[in-house]
Amino acid sequence: MQITDPLLTKKEAAAILKISVPTFYRRVADGTVPRPIKIGSLSKWPLSDILSTIEDAKSARGPQPFRGAPL
Predict the structure, then answer these.
(1) Virtual torsion, Cα 57, 63, 69, 71, nearest 10 deg
(2) What is the helix (H) or strand (E) element at residue 59, kind and residue range?
(3) CB 13: neighbour CB atoms within 10 A?
(4) What's the CA gap between 23 and 31, in Å, rounded?
């Protein structure tokens, strides 16, 4: 069986987002990050949910000005 969407721990998910674990839980509480999948007493986040969170944040910021070399 091949895993196509690995499940992450809170520490792994927070590391991808470059935030602390307490901040990660605050983002879950405010809805910025999706709620976890519960497996017994374990909480896991699909990698796709964390990547979606990043994409949502990027699209919410709107278009960014081009910062290339001046012509």
Answers:
(1) 180
(2) helix 47-60
(3) 25
(4) 12
Which among 4, 62, 9 is positioned nearest to 37, based on CA atoms?
Answer: 9
Q: What is the four-CA torsion angle of 11, 16, 21, 23, rounded to 10 degrees? A: -160
**CA–CA distance, 71 with 53 (Å, rounded to integer):** 35
pTM: 0.81
Q: pLDDT digits over 17-62, tens only?
A: 999 999 999 999 999 999 999 999 999 999 999 999 999 999 888 7
Give 67's pLDDT tier (boundaries 50, 70, 90). Answer: confident
Q: Is 29 helix (H, G, I), strand (E, B) or coil?
A: helix
The position carrying tokens 């919410």 is 60
